[in-house]
Amino acid sequence: MKAKATVRFPLESERKLTALIKALTPEVCKQMGTRSRVTVTRDQLFMVLNVEAEDIVALRSALNAYLRWVNSTLRVMEIVSKNS
Asked: Of 40, 35, 41, nearest to 55 (Cα)?
């Protein structure tokens, strides 16, 4: 079974969008395993996360990992902007 998911994250500025994509790039280039493939692209002020997997378990695993990384990165950016 092939499983796919696309998640679009709206960002408020080009700067935050670029920072988020740069933060995820090492993970995207490394790829977690052979059962899933992840790409990150931009569409205007949206970061688009595309996940394709061999099965639903691999899809869930990859999505959970990337969603945690996105959340962590956005929280760090929020803290940094409050302290600036």
From this structure: 35
DSSP string, the chain: --EEEEEEEE-S-HHHHHHHHHHHHHHHHH-S-SSEEEEEEEETTEEEEEEEESSHHHHHHHHHHHHHHHHHHHHHHHHHHHH-
Phi, psi of 46 (to 5 degrees): -115, 140
∠ Cα 68 29 6 (to 5°): 50
d(CA 53, CA 35): 6
Answer yes or no: are the C-beta atoms of 42 and 48 closer than 8 Å. Answer: yes
- pTM value > 0.85: yes
Angle between helices 56-83 and 14-30 in degrees, nearest 10: 140
Please write the tens of the pLDDT for every residue from 23-81. Answer: 999 989 887 678 999 999 999 999 999 999 999 999 999 999 999 999 999 999 999 98
